[in-house]
Amino acid sequence: MAKKKSKKSPMSKYVVAIAVLLLSLAVLTGIGSKTGLNTADSGFIDENIPEISEFERYIDIILSFIRNTGSKNPAEETETITAGSFNIQVFGQSKASDDEVMTTLARIIRNFDIIAIQEIRDSSETAAPLLLEYVNSDGSDYGMFIGERLGRTSSKEQYAFIYNRNTIRPAGAPVTYPDSTETDLFHREPYIMPFETTGGDFTATYAVIHTDPDEADEEIPALIHVMDYMKGILPGDDALILMGDLNADCSYFDEDSYITLKSEKYNWLIGNGEDTTTGNTVCTYDRIILNGGEDYYTGESGVFRFDTIYGLTRDESLKVSDHYPVYAKFKISRDGTVPAVISTPSGPSDSCSGDSCIQESKIIITGINPVSEEVTIQNAGDEDKQISGWRLSDSGSENSYIFPQYTIRAGASVTITPDMNSTEENILVWQTGDEIWDDSGDCAFLYDENGNPASEFCISI
């Protein structure tokens, strides 16, 4: 279906004049050093792209300027969104210090409206925000939500959702799947969050997971429970989309075996014949599973082969990741059209009470460990938040913790623990001396400095 045509901006002639001047300067000053920026703006895949020089970087910035100056909201001109998943392989300080790799990662991410990132391994929690800076370095406007550090061993990983603010916005708060300590189904519990398109009417709840390869045979069938849990995140939404590095092939999992997650109501959009690895193996580890919302699915999905697309050597590709991203495209409206009026998200109200405050708060409780009685709180907003004077309480406020001078960075988490000997980062110690959150039905309540309710979380075992 053709894109909607838009009238030219009255500034167009001035933009063209400026562009001609900048292009002339570029021709005179072009220098050839290898780098990598996004030149694939007209479609999802731009094949046979040669090596990128400093001159071409300059041209890319100029073209981006032309596209963005005086243009309309992209949500008014697109009829589809691209959702994807990418295991960026041991992403920490070492990879974040490689400008060429970071530039390529950013270039890849810009092809997606929303992308679920796996295998962030960075105890400093600075690598992911730096990646977002690279993504937005060309004038793009992407946001990010990042989960807590997860894992049974000392090697912790985080998930993240990176999304284009022009086409996607949050439809609710993120949550880590509340895996009970008795079952302990997952090495790294899925990270779940609902999003909606800024235009059209497509809403979906997304979940991302990186299964333990040694336990993929057990974790993949257990994802049916995650799907069931996702149905309650945003009742009435259009689709459940679970994606990630499932390790769903080769020696880790028999991709031809039958499990409930392969029944007819679950659509595996990345077929068994695909290769999602950049190395010598031929395995379909990475998947996208759709439940509901089939009338929004365009039928287009696959593997984003960035090595072929960007002309990278095998060694250059492996420096980026040992996985390819996988993707699927969705219509933003059932009939494929875009409404004439596109709403914009409203900010929090000046005053609130009761449940309305809970819905608007960006500081949320994301989990309770009933064994250690640790409570995890996340800043789901885009700005750092000072929470001094905030209060964490149990039912009836019989036990309360008042936060000291403390700031939660945007997207970061803090854990309140009774363990005085804890050496983990982002920890606040609360010596309760009592068993408060150790049983199903026990709830934690978070209040801001004015006593307004901000978030609540109840244990379900």
TrEMBL record:
Residue ranges of every copy of the LTD domain listed in the record = 354-461
Q: Does the keyword Methyltransferase apply?
A: no
Checking SUPFAM superfamilies in the record gives:
DNase I-like, Lamin A/C globular tail domain
Q: Is Hydrolase one of the keywords UniProt gives this record?
A: yes
Give the matching InterPro entries.
DNase_I (IPR016202), Endo/exonu/phosph_ase_sf (IPR036691), Endo/exonuclease/phosphatase (IPR005135), Lamin_tail_dom (IPR001322), Lamin_tail_dom_sf (IPR036415)
Q: Which domain of life is it from?
A: Archaea
Q: Which GO terms describe its biological process?
A: DNA catabolic process
Q: Which keywords label this protein?
A: Endonuclease, Exonuclease, Hydrolase, Nuclease
Write one Gene Ontology MF term: exonuclease activity
Per the similarity annotation, which family is this? Belongs to the DNase I family.
Question: This chain belongs to which protein, by name?
Answer: Endonuclease/exonuclease/phosphatase
Species of provenance: Methanoplanus limicola DSM 2279
Q: Taxonomic classification, please?
A: Archaea, Methanobacteriati, Methanobacteriota, Stenosarchaea group, Methanomicrobia
